[in-house]
Amino acid sequence: MLRRTSIATALLVIASALPAHAQAPAVERQEVGNRISENIPAIPAELVERLNRYQNTRGAGVAGWTKDGCLLVGTRFAETNQVHRVCQPLGMREQLTFYPEPIGAVAPMPAAGSRDGFVFSKDKGGDEFSQLYWFDGGSREVSLLTDGKRTQNTGPLFSPDGKWLAYRSTARNGTDTDIWLRDMATGQSRPVVTAGGSWSARDFSPDGKTLLVMKGVSAAESYPGKVDLATGALTMFPVEGGKAAFGDFAYGPDGKSAYYVSDEPVDGKPQEFQTLRHHDAATGKITVLSGTIPWDVTGFSLSEDRRHLAYATNEDGISRLRVLALPSHREIPLPALPVGVFGAGVFSPDGHRLALSINSATSPSDVYVIDLRDARLARWTQSEVGGLDASKFVAPTLIRYPTFDHVNGGNQGKSRRTIPAFYYRPANVPAGRRLPVVINIHGGPEAQSLPTFNPTAQFMANELGVAMLVPNVRGSSGYGKTYLSLDNAEKREDSVKDIGALLDWIAKQPELDSSRVGVVGGSYGGYMVLASLMHYSDRIRAGIDVVGISHFGTFLKNTESYRRDLRRVEYGDERDPKMAEIFERISPLNHADRIKAKLFVAQGKNDPRVPWTEAEQIVKAVRANGQPVWYLLFNDEGHGFRKKSNNDYFGAASVLFWQENLLDEKK
């Protein structure tokens, strides 16, 4: 059903809010199913056809192994990502789940378990109140494991014998994320960690009697411990230096020693990066296993027999894999892997094979399997690229541009700080042509943009001749704990200044047109878009804000309670009068009159992270100053658009927005 109405902005805000010189722009509103759009023109059929092949690329990600040696993979063949089974290299993908909502986490029953199947998570309309379900491998029946209410249930983890399932849940009070334990035979569930805060289960001991756990506070602060599953006794481990970040955490072969990732000080010396470490329970000795690598270890995995450990590092945005034999820690030979981005993989039940999902800038994610016995690599999936010629895809180059401050502070004898960015430059550009530019800013803010496959960047480069710059401004992960902390609390706008420095860099590049620059970003990246428009509207033509924060105070007030304290650590506490004053000063909502560039705001109605009210209020405020705004709202989406038809529409509308507001050299 389609409904179309035309109303004036004066109906959305009181007339007195309009500046005397502003003229209320008309608002053209359409409702099509779950989609509400305002001021978005009809998408031309020609554009839909040009985009079609790019929007029909798809990838595949490994979720785990079945008992019989097949792989469970996540991929999309219709609207959403579902679980499929593949039993040989480049074999048929058998779809196992069929839901209108995408599948989240997947945890297969261990080989030693008495049942065959897997646990998976699924929410409704992107609300992130995920429930856990059991898929029975024999009957193909699905049963609900959690309460089915407005609770978040994530992180399923089986004990080695498959008897117990540990998971994270907000079921106790809706705010704290506790650790629960389910007896898979009786169906009885009980909380085993209720100490308050955000907890996750990391690894069962080989005998299934204890569970390693982690309390997360922020990207830079977490606390490890263990819980005795019989008594419920929780023991926290000491943290060297008192405060540190921790990643994966697992028992060694003896069931007492442990492997973990941390940036704790080593021999009293502070560490910038998270390294893989081994704690010998018998001697108390801690060995840093990745100490020669000046980059973060992003994660590791252990084989079920705990005879091998695989770990991945993030080396300036490119992943590197290493596999160690245990307990000797001898590195074993591996085949050459495609250059790209991947995690530590998943070991087969017999421990002889390791499955990886490998993604690159010119290829969607696909599943590869390494046979550790002969260092042989086999490709198990080959995903579609919409019939496009993949050889014409643009691979980005890594550039670094100078920003406003200097390393270690000050400006006397110190080197200028540089910001890393990936630069997608169209091929075969005629001499003398200056390219329009889109700056794509990641969210998080502790995330990191990586050179992964981006069909939008490929379309912009190959079809529209638009360059894309993807910066990792201060506050991004992957570049050390100091860099991660440079935008915290009162330093929030320093990251916006990094975008100003990128505008300076663009102006100095002979092939780029500094008069035609756009910005796009989601979540925290959406805030960065609005803040960039607030500060640099004279240098930026247009911006697309996706599920972005428009006022930190209202965001923290309205975000889901289980996320609030975690976000306060990063952004600051709105209850502190000094911090509240900073929020009033830096929030784009309070300076909407300074946003003169064209704006497109897109949002999911069910977003639990950045509530849809953040989008509504910035749209109204900018329109109140006489500026037209494109606005898109999906009633069946949350923090981002996971349904193909919704994402396709948003993608087409975004391209149309750039065509109308960025590509014309005369505007």
Please write out the topology.
Elements: E1 2-8, E2 26-32, E3 35-38, H1 45-55, E4 60-65, E5 71-76, E6 81-86, E7 94-95, E8 103-108, E9 117-122, E10 131-136, E11 142-144, E12 153-158, E13 164-169, E14 178-183, E15 189-193, E16 198-204, E17 210-218, E18 221-228, E19 234-236, E20 246-251, E21 258-262, E22 275-279, E23 286-288, E24 296-302, E25 308-315, E26 318-325, E27 330-331, E28 346-347, E29 353-360, E30 363-371, E31 376-379, E32 397-406, E33 416-424, E34 435-441, H2 455-464, E35 467-471, H3 481-484, H4 492-507, E36 512-522, H5 524-536, E37 542-546, H6 552-558, H7 561-571, H8 577-586, E38 598-604, H9 613-624, E39 629-634, H10 644-661
Structure notes:
The protein has 667 residues and is α+β, with helices and mostly antiparallel strands. It folds into 3 domains: 2-55 and 389-661, Alpha/Beta hydrolase fold, catalytic domain (Rossmann fold, 3-Layer(aba) Sandwich); 101-237, TolB, C-terminal domain (Neuraminidase); 244-383, Neuraminidase, CATH 2.120.10. It is 17% helix and 35% strand. The protein has 10 helices and 39 strands. The strands form 8 sheets. An 11-stranded mixed beta sheet has the order 1-2-3-39-38-37-36-34-35-33-32, with helices on both faces. The radius of gyration is 25 Å and the shape is globular. 47% of the residues are buried. Keywords: Hydrolase, Protease, Serine protease, Signal. Residues 452-662 form the Peptidase S9 prolyl oligopeptidase catalytic domain. Pfam families: PD40, Peptidase_S9.
